[in-house]
Amino acid sequence: MGKTIVIANQKGGVGKTTTTINLAASIALAEKDILVIDTDPQGNLTSGLGINRDDLQKSLYDIYTEKQPIENVIVETQVPHLYIIPSNIDLLGVEVELVERHGRERILADAIVKVKSSYRYIFIDCPPSLGLLTLNGLVAADSIIVPVQCEYFSLEGLGLLSRTLKLVRGSFNPSLDIEGILLTMFDPRNALSHQVAEEVRKFFGDKVYHTLIPRNVTLGEAPSHGKPAILYDARSKGAQSYLSLAKEILNENGIR
Amino acid sequence: MGKTIVIANQKGGVGKTTTTINLAASIALAEKDILVIDTDPQGNLTSGLGINRDDLQKSLYDIYTEKQPIENVIVETQVPHLYIIPSNIDLLGVEVELVERHGRERILADAIVKVKSSYRYIFIDCPPSLGLLTLNGLVAADSIIVPVQCEYFSLEGLGLLSRTLKLVRGSFNPSLDIEGILLTMFDPRNALSHQVAEEVRKFFGDKVYHTLIPRNVTLGEAPSHGKPAILYDARSKGAQSYLSLAKEILNENGIR
Ligand SMILES: Nc1ncnc2c1ncn2[C@@H]1O[C@H](COP(=O)(O)OP(=O)(O)OP(=O)(O)O)[C@@H](O)[C@H]1O
Ligand SMILES: Nc1ncnc2c1ncn2[C@@H]1O[C@H](COP(=O)(O)OP(=O)(O)OP(=O)(O)O)[C@@H](O)[C@H]1O
Ligand SMILES: [Mg+2]
Ligand SMILES: [Mg+2]
């Protein structure tokens, strides 16, 4: 119960949020209780699931400032079995506000402990940085999924990410595993896409998922309707690819 | 002389670095001396211009830590007239290291003053965040170019960016103008692309450049060869669109 998976990559726009939304929704639709946590002050996960950030009474920020216990901050989404700890803009201040606080990299980990047993999986979406918010995600997680866009800069960023994982294992979370590497926005007509996929497989071997997420219009449109792709257009390649990823992950984790 | 333009957007992967590389190269090829500054610890601008980050003796970090004057940190690129202050991974520590330092948001601005007159334009590439590194870029600049990817999340991020610009003008840099808004990765076959373009034009009016940057394989491939698109494949749509953007900007600034 409550396997906590962080979805992280310091490179921007590689599909962290899109993966969190659609992977979580796919598993939730298999009637398993899933919690997603939006640790990005930009709040794309929150709005991509149809939650109005301006109306938010409580958010992840209240957990960091110890104003609310985690149970009070979790809300339902329009997807049955899918719950969220939303983010709002106050999170922007957190990195600076907590610079002096002891144990500041463990705040999320300590909060999650209290609700871990209520969910099959907990997914943590991270901002494109290696600051305190992402660090909390890496420290709280059992394992990491790394979305890698099939582009040169994204490939280049893997060295830095690997070094960061080593550091985190060395100092804060020795049991942080790589759940898997997910190739995103794969374009089969594009030679560079194939080259990046090859390089990533050389480097990470069978940690790379067989499922490739193709570039698909549905994945870009669905968040503008506040829905995961599977509720917006279940037959789309985008929705189907994340369904297939969900099956791959559930099989690996021995859940059918 | 030395108009300083920051290229910023907290949303990841919208084309900040691609725009900095290709806009700067296009103007440099018109034989104007151009300086680009890589303020992203990820260093995509640096590697995209063919500079080996592991061999770097000096970088932007030395300016922040006051170990080197700005003149010592500027290096040539393989593009005639194009110079760079490179970034390396040490920049990751800067936000935390400088949290106590007085005037920490002005360090880049104060350094640039000494070399401003040597260049026609200075372009500052920012990381996908609103932290101290981006703030230094916003404070140092005369104006900002905002690349906006034709996708929903990128559109959504404009509200936050506008509020940030207001804050920066209010507290640090009253004369920060919007140089222009650049629609990137535009796909004419994609209804969402058109919707985002429309929304952006509603919001920003004639600040939006007429030049649209199309999705083009060349723009993704060129950095893997350490070159701007115009040296990699000058006839590509990608290279041509940034050439056209450069003309638009030079005309607006009264330079032919
Ligand atoms: N497979 C896909 N096909 C088409 N569009 C996609 C796909 N995956 C993601 N997108 C779109 O690309 C953009 C970037 O994706 P997303 O926001 O999920 O990346 P991210 O890594 O979370 O970005 P950030 O670093 O800013 O948090 C978004 O506008 C998203 O809707
Ligand atoms: N017009 C385009 N056509 C095709 N690919 C593009 C285009 N513009 C950018 N890219 C590619 O898309 C990815 C994201 O672009 P880029 O890195 O320039 O964005 P960024 O805003 O600087 O990202 P970050 O927020 O991580 O700094 C890169 O791999 C780049 O090569
Ligand atoms: Mg995201
Ligand atoms: Mg960049």
Category from helices, strands and their pairing of chain A: alpha/beta
Q: What is the makeup of the main sheet of chain A?
A: 7 strands, mixed
Question: Biggest interface, and residues per chain?
Answer: A-B, 37 and 37 residues
The SSE order of chain A reads EHEHHHEEHHEHEHHEHHHH
Strand-residue proportion of chain A: 5-15%
Number of strands of chain A: 7
How are the strands ordered across the major sheet of chain A?
3-4-2-5-1-6-7
| pLDDT averaged over residues of chain A | 96
Oligomer: homodimer
Helix residue percentage of chain A: 40-55%
Give the CA-CA distance, first to last residue of chain A.
14 Å
General shape of chain A: globular
Count of helical regions of chain A: 13
- Are there runs of chain A of 5+ residues with pLDDT below 50, and where? none
Cα gyration radius of chain A (Å): 17 Å
